[in-house]
Amino acid sequence: MPEIFINGKPVQAEANQTVLQAALANGFYIPYFCWHKELSIAGNCRICTVQVEGRSWVEISCNMPVSEGLHVLTDSDLVRAHRKATMQFITLNHPVDCGICDKAGECTLQDYHFAYNGSPSVSREPKVHATKFHDLSERILLDNERCILCSRCVRFTREISKSNALGIKNRGDVSLVRAADDSPLDADPYSDNVIDICPVGALLSKPFLHKARVWYLKPTPSVCPGCERGCSVNIWHRKAEWHLRALDPKQNTSIARVTPLENPAVNGPWICNKGRDLAQVFERARADRAMQKGKPVELEAAIAAARKLIKEAAHPVALVSNWASDEELSAFKDALGARFTTFVKRDHAPQPGEVIEDDLLIRADKNPNTAGARALFGEASLREPSYPANTDLVLVWGEGCNFATLPAGAKIVFLNSYLAPENGFADVFIPVSIQTERAGHYTNFAGVVSAFERCFAKPATVADAQEVFAQIAPGPAGTP
Amino acid sequence: MPGKQLLMTFPVTATSHTLADYVGRGGYATLRRVLDAMKSEDVTKEVAASGLLGHGGAAFSAGRKWGVVNLNDHQPHYLCANADEGEPGTFKDRWILENAPHLLLESMLIAAFALQVRNAFVYIRGEFDLPYRRIAAAVEEAYAAGYFGENILGSEFSCDIVIYRGAGSYVCGEASGLLSSLEGKRGYPRNRPPRLTVQGLYKRPTVVNNVETLANVTGIIAGGAEAYRKVGTAKCPGTQLVSISGHIARPGVYEVEYGYSMQQFLFDDCGGMLPGQKLKCIVPGGISTKVLTAAEVAPLTFDHQSFAGAGSSIGSGGMIAIAEGTCMVRLLQVMLRFYHHESCGQCTPCREGMGWLHKIIDRIVAGEGRPDDIDSLYRISRLQDGMTICGMGDAAGYATIGILDKYRDEFEYWITNKRSKLEGNLEGTVHA
Q: In what order do the strands lie in the sheet with A140-142?
């Protein structure tokens, strides 16, 4: 453990660290654009300069190995002058169009300008013009004028997603990031991570383009239900204080975008593109009316009817949802587990064209909480359900159940969140909340438990499954 | 001839580049002796003892570079001859490639033996036509004669060589950019550390030497380090090929012994300036070195210490003689256009700074200069100094500062009067 001195203060560094890593790990901030802890060192942005005490020049810290007794200054006059100069270089041909840039508010370049430069450009020369709104893929737009050629996106596709989809062509100040002809970025299921790691507003998400200023949005920590990896994500939605009163009020309760929430135990700083598109899952048409045999009824009436059916049933079977949280599954087990023969249903199967499994994040089981259900109901509950001959009631919880496979004659109590033909077919249908309307935990395939928080209020006519189970559980003998 | 000769020791004829002629001059005898009687370490020691300096521009000791390679590290080592001679004004390696390709190959074999290299490379600039054909033909001859391949000359030593043509990028002449290009990647220079002798081609220890540096190895091993040290000066042994061009009577490639008088070289050996012209300044070693005025050059001797004392450098030996009447503003414009065009675009100061410098000088020449433009040129040049991954940022900065320091008046004149101070002077049609 070499001891180095940063601004005169002793710091215990790891032997294989660079000065930049040692500084960041010990609370000293050194600015950086091109460096990224998960990527190789490019050393091209030149903003991370430090001065070794006694030397009259500066060096980049991202590529400087620590050595015993090294004294570095991160804030000397020389370092400050060089940072300022580098910011002048970096913004020389940058359009500084923050007013119309989606990245504004979370842009490293913008932050560093105020932190390390602050002066207008000293250049009088016309800026180099380059392509704007270049279609890098179906999902990503590239503004080459904003690009500072840090090569993070290129290194990401080489080192992390391994699609090799991006490269740089031309040279000098007309260099351009471009997708390779033979390995398009569309084929990379992790492509959207380059938008997050872009330190400027060059790489833009098409679905999010010009949708919202980020300072009107709030990130709520959540868990991606797209597969059993259970990546930690941030679900971005409008802050309560910035709710829109005009326009479409749905904007106040819709997902603006999804970004990774760094979690070293699960997904590191990445997620796949499916996780970005959670709005497509959660914003499907909702079932918001309780029904009995397809006839709308009040929620209370439906719950009472379900309780009656369960009380009367002699041999009930339950198909529980593996999109349910650990808490909901526990609530079911506590309230009804003893009464029901329980199977765990797989709510979602892989869609056509979806990546089934890979070495990075994506897992074959496209449900978030199979492991949590297994822990509660046992391995056997994951088998194909086998209905006893005298089954007289099936409680189906969540999607993915073909009602034709249910035993004929059995009553059906159905809990679901989305509009589906089966809803009206059930004897009792109870609409339930979705993940973004409640808090809870999922247990991923490796046993890591991750929490998700509530983003939006649930509709008044919709129940929380967790509470429903206590209400539909038949009371002790003698109660109604 | 400007002093003793080590490389240009034979008359150039129609066949002097062939294997037969080279063997007739005693070629490949040194290789035979090395393989028969020397150990790898001894070759490196001999080269280190000779004080052989790199001839590509940086003048780094070849022996020290070789000494970094650990012969017992159980991994492949690589050797690469840098024949990407792209520094403007420089065309000396071309002479070796065209006229003494076997000298380079024999030297590379000896170096490969010293560094325990199984695969050696020659990275040759794409624009070279005759040099490429000559070196490629020489490799074929050498393979046919058993100087390359398995068990060379019956020894345990095996070595193969690949000639790789660049695609015309200046930055690929920088050793690490060259290796990136050789690996098939963009010719981006790499950050140090690690040094290339620790992690170079394919992340293995790699020695990249200039063609001329390598070409000297055979002579050093043949004659011994002592003999080599007797040529040149004590601190700067040997000779350097100088390619001189510009307003000089006899341009061409000369082998100049270190320590030789510059005055004598320019005015005797090269025949002085073209008729009617007077020396204004020289670009001493490629445009990346600071220009030296006629008065500054006059007392110098041709060696690194003498040039360093005058604030410049011998560089790559690409000398350009510039006559009185030449407009230095236009000269700088041409140089900056080159640097702007050749910046690889990898790191910020050079990518942005070269274009900035170029735009400012273009604006001055267009008659739209402002009084503070000179300060801007200075400031941008200084900011690039030492701030880039390779030396190109420094080089362009030196060149710019060198010219601005010495000919600031010409820039001020152009900015004020919107035309060259020396319009027509060179051609003898001086304005009133």
A: A134-135, A140-142, A203-205
Q: Which of B259, B289, B323 is the last residue of a domain?
A: B323
- How far apart CA B56 and CA B66 sit, in angstroms, is 16
Minimal C-alpha gap between A175 and chain B (Å): 6
- ipTM, 2 decimals? 0.92
Contact indicator for B325, B276 with CB cutoff of 8 Å: no
Instruction: Name the residue among A407, A400, A405, A382 with its Cα closest to residue A313.
Output: A407
Residue B86: CB atoms within 10 Å: 22
User: B352–A89: do the CB atoms touch at under 8 Å?
Assistant: yes
Taking only the tens place, the pLDDT of each residue in B15-35 is 999 999 999 999 999 999 999
Range of the domain at A390: 290-442+456-472
CB contact under 8 Å between A172 and B340, yes or no, is: yes
pTM score, whole prediction: 0.94
Query: Would residue A26 count as lying in a domain?
Result: yes
Please give the Cα distance from B172 to B7 (Å, whole number). Answer: 26
- Residues on B contacting A at a C-beta cutoff of 8 Å: 169, 186, 191-193, 340-349, 351-356, 359-360, 363, 370, 376, 383, 386-389
For chain A, helix (H) and strand (E) counts, in that order, are 12, 22
Domain-ending residue, one of A90, A108, A129: A90
At residue B19, φ and ψ (nearest 5 deg) are -60, -40
The span from the CA of A355 to the CA of A446, in Å, is 20
Pairing of strands A411-416, A428-431: parallel
CB B87 within 8 A of CB B95: no
Model pLDDT for residues A140-163, shown as the tens digit of each residue: 999 999 999 999 999 999 999 999
Q: Mapping DSSP to helix (H, G, I), strand (E, B) and coil, where does residue A230 land?
A: coil
What digits encode the pLDDT tens for the residues A442-459?
A: 999 999 999 999 999 999
Distance from CA of A83 to the nearest CA of B (A): 10
* B356 to A63: CB separation less than 8 angstroms, yes or no: no
Give the chain A residue whose CA is nearest to the CA of B192.
A63
A10 contacts: CB under 8 Å, gap ≥ 6? A3, A4
Residue labelled with tokens 């017992």 = B72
Number of independent structural domains in chain B: 3
Same domain, B274 and B177: no
Encoding tokens for residue A321?
A: 């949802």
